[in-house]
Design goal:
Layout (H helix, E strand, L loop, with lengths): L5 H4 L35 H14 L20 H7 L2 H4 L11 H18 L3 E3 L5 H18 L6 E5 L5 H8 L3 E5 L9 H7 L4 E7 L11 H10 L3 E6 L11 H4 L3 E4 L19 E3 L11 E6 L5 E6 L16 H37 L15 E4 L1 H4 L5 H10 L6 E2 L8 E4 L7 H20 L1 H5 L12 H6 L8
Parallel strand pairs: 2-3, 2-4, 4-5, 5-6
Antiparallel strand pairs: 1-7, 6-7, 8-9, 10-12, 11-12
Bound molecules: pyridoxal-5'-phosphate (PLP).
């Protein structure tokens, strides 16, 4: 590592603080309250600042590099969002403040709920879940509660084979049996297989649309009709909403529950697994099951509105998150949405789709394109051709780092061998896209003429290849002296 740990840089007796001289009698603290063996590194403030600044510069980030990480929508996060979230009226709020002191914050949340309901075509929204997977969990718990109420023992959740791993994982965590539906030759849900899997035991189908192949399922309405005809519900994984924003609404396709990833489509920072924001939207019949608290609006005299936190909802599934969700992220999401306006949201979808198709058309001569049809906001290449020279998708991903580009998602979705999942987003310029094309073509040539070069990449990063299997199986995340 180019940067040692703070513990390694520590010098005993060199603290980063100065305390005034004691001017009261010395009184030892009760030993029961003392934490023992608190081995903190001892450094000056300047050394600490330099350490963290250097570490931040060792990373690839959306603010420093092109970041076409498929399925993650690594768009630029406008700094104005952070500025607004940092306003003292928002940043200094305490979640335990009484209702009458937080009317403005509640009004803001209600406004965001209404906008997200309009964008998705749903009747009610909860902003509580902290991520997409958390939205999935919340939505499926609501579906389970709904069927229990009706006395129906539906214990199966259907998931296409192109789905993100969180879909089957969430369903399995809740005790549902997961049944996988294969994709057809065009990358959509195979209708015959769907029919064969549908039964009175099916609680829901979870669908991502456009799916993780970047393809819009042309049979969406038919799928919805068939699932509903058997009494099942439709869950929309909104991770890819960027592609249809302002153009089409999952509520209009027949979906009953949707989650959105504000940290993708609505331009709030991704937080390394959290904190993000994964609001859910539901159709009216599921509204009673929404998590607590639900914000209600009561008209008062002189046309003012009082916002209240309603905890008295007997059918609610209860709390899924402390307080009201990740509030400052919700401020960012609202700022972004209002700044775009309805026409701007539609433009986001159009440009993200245009950018993806531009890259796809330019690269399909050099890499295998398993589904050669117009894509939405992302597309999948396969490094099959390069594999013939012993260069794998992983090698290509690593080589991109040497050219100052963050790799695309690799080996996902699982149904494409040697997958490279590329999502440029709408915030990249034509020059950046052209450079990416140039670099990808260069790497394809290197793979053919000098495979060892690609296999050994990266050469320019502080850490080259790590043993990711060892890192996952035996994570060593603590510093031991
Ligand atoms: C299609 C899809 N569904 C669900 C998720 C889970 O979302 P989150 O990472 O916010 O939990 C992701 C994340 O990348 C995704 O791409």
């Amino acid at each position: 590592m180019a940067e040692p740990l703070l513990f390694e840089k520590s010098v005993p007796g060199r603290p980063g603080y100065q305390l005034p001289t004691l001017d009261v009698p010395l009184e030892p603290l009760p030993t029961d309250d003392l934490r023992k063996d608190l081995e903190l590194p001892e450094l000056s403030e300047l050394d600490v600042v330099r350490h963290f600044t250097r570490l931040s510069q060792l990373n690839f980030s959306i603010d420093t590099h092109f970041y076409p990480l498929g399925s993650c929508t690594m768009k630029y996060n406008p700094k104005i969002n952070d500025e607004l979230a940092g306003l003292p009226g928002f940043a200094d709020l305490h979640p335990f403040q009484p209702e009458h002191q937080i009317q403005g914050a509640l009004e803001l949340l209600v406004l965001l709920q209404k906008i997200l309901a309009e964008i998705t075509g749903m009747d009610a929204v909860s902003l509580q879940p902290a991520a997409g997977a958390h939205g999935e969990l919340t939505g499926l718990i609501m579906i389970r509660a709904y069927f229990r109420d009706r006395g129906e023992n539906r214990h199966i959740v259907l998931v296409p084979d192109s789905a993100h791993g969180t879909n089957p994982a969430t369903a399995a965590m809740l005790g549902f049996k997961v049944v996988q539906i294969p994709s057809n030759a065009r990358g959509g849900v195979d209708l015959e297989a769907l029919d064969a899997a549908l039964s009175p035991d099916v609680a829901a189908l979870m669908l991502t649309n456009p799916n993780t192949l970047g393809l819009f399922d042309e049979n969406t309405l038919e799928i919805a009709k068939r699932v509903h005809a058997k009494g099942g519900l439709l869950y929309y994984d909104g991770a890819n909403l960027n592609a249809i924003l302002g153009i089409a609404r999952p509520g209009d396709f027949g979906f009953d529950v949707v989650h959105l990833n504000l940290h993708k489509t609505f331009s709030i920072p991704h937080g390394g697994g959290g904190p993000g924001a994964g609001p859910i939207g539901v159709k009216a019949f599921l509204e009673p099951y929404l998590p607590l608290p639900v914000i209600t609006e009561k008209k008062q005299e002189a046309s003012s509105i009082h916002y209240a936190l309603d905890e008295n909802r007997p059918k609610s599934i209860g709390r899924v998150k402390a307080y009201y969700g990740n509030f400052l992220h919700l401020v960012r999401g609202l700022a972004y949405t209002l700044a775009q306006g309805p026409g701007g949201l539609r433009k986001i979808a159009e440009i993200s789709v245009l950018n993806a198709n531009y890259l796809m058309q330019a690269l399909k001569k050099y890499y295998d394109l398993p589904y050669d049809r117009i894509c939405k906001h992302e597309f999948i290449l396969s490094a099959k051709r390069q594999k013939a020279h012993n260069v794998r998708a992983l090698d290509i991903a690593k080589r991109l780092l040497d050219y100052g580009i963050h790799p695309p998602t690799v080996y996902f979705p699982l149904i494409v061998a040697e997958a490279l999942m590329i999502e440029p987003t709408e915030t990249e310029s034509k020059e950046t896209l052209d450079r990416f094309i140039e670099v990808m073509i260069k790497i394809a040539e290197e793979a053919e003429k000098n495979p060892e070069l690609v296999q050994g990449a990266p050469y320019s990063t502080p850490v080259s290849r790590v043993d990711d299997v060892l890192a996952a199986r035996k994570p060593n995340v603590c510093w031991c002296s």
